[in-house]
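Batch manifest line 363
LIGAND: uridine-diphosphate-N-acetylglucosamine
JOB: complex structure
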Amino acid sequence: MINAHIVVGARPNFMKVAPLFRAMSHESWIKPALIHTGQHYSENMSDAFFSDLGLPPPAFNLGARGETHARQTAAIMIAYEDLLLAGKPDWVIVVGDVNSTLAAALAAKKLNIPVAHLEAGLRNFDRTLPEEINRIVTDSISDLLWAPSVDACENLRREGVDPAKIDLVGNIMIDSYLMLSETISQASMAKRIGIPAGKYVVVTLHRPANVDDPNMLTRIVDALRQLATSAIIVFPVHPRTRTKLEMAGLIGRLQHENIRLIEPMGYVAFMSLVQSSALVITDSGGIQEETSYIGIPCLTLRTNTERPITITLGTNQLVTPETLLDAATVAISRGPRLPSDISLWDGHTASRVVASLARHAKM
Ligand code: UD1
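JOB STATUS: finished
ARTIFACT:
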């Protein structure tokens, strides 16, 4: 029997582990335990995802908090090391690129526990972003690297990772979406919010590069106000973004009859909102993939993406606050696109991950 920790911490982790936990629970040779670092702790940033995704409560919640990156990462490492010392698992599985991913991988490797990284190999080659550092360091110490796409495998090989450690498994986010697609379709969030399906724009923003700089945030808010003269905007506001909007005195500028500022939503509600939208404007990573898969146009307010396949084969386009309005107008008038057909984005990634772990863990 292989005891495996699956470590989660922040919102984008929860949907990624749900299909994996489910697939592992059906296997007799592996016993998965969910470990929550506590990085995200609010009801609507964490608990809502566990109930939506049918995840059991975590076996342990480390409750680790920290105001800065170093403090947050260190708090998770210290708490997780204590847990690992109390009972070492055979494998530690980390997902994505958040501080919890890096912290758990480091704590485990220092105790010589093998680490597997789900969503390995994504790079945007911009080391000013905290996620890029988390990705590079986590991949460099992982024993097993589960890549979502061919470009991710190439990045890993270029960095000198032993090809025997890399398995191309596909995109786990598509498993999560397909697992819940019926529930998502029935959720009818647009109707519940009282907005016309197919005729509104969903906005999400939280990256430090966009929201921490008051000048950049002002440019984005002004672009959204302009867009609101011709489109309804629904904007679930991330807690850090709300704080930054308030600090910069910009909340008032978003008071507009066509702009709905709402609280962050759970997975099913949010995906329902996206599914019936005309366009999504975001700086998230996962949403670029989800919109590409469904065929909803996506404008990403960043200068680069670690998910280039969403641009070459999907519906994604990079924009600045200054190019946003024109790009949005074109995307809305063009209408929905055909869902993207990207290799291994097929809902079977979790079973490929389980098969890969069986090959490596039982060696
Ligand atoms: C983190 C990830 C980012 C991911 C994002 C999704 C890192 C480096 N960043 O950024 O990659 O896309 O999660 O949300 O790991 N807060 C709450 N309640 C919560 C969580 C956060 O109020 O449940 C507030 C707190 O004020 C906190 C701030 O949001 O200090 C930022 O949270 P943090 O986890 O540090 O980073 P995110 O911006 O959420």
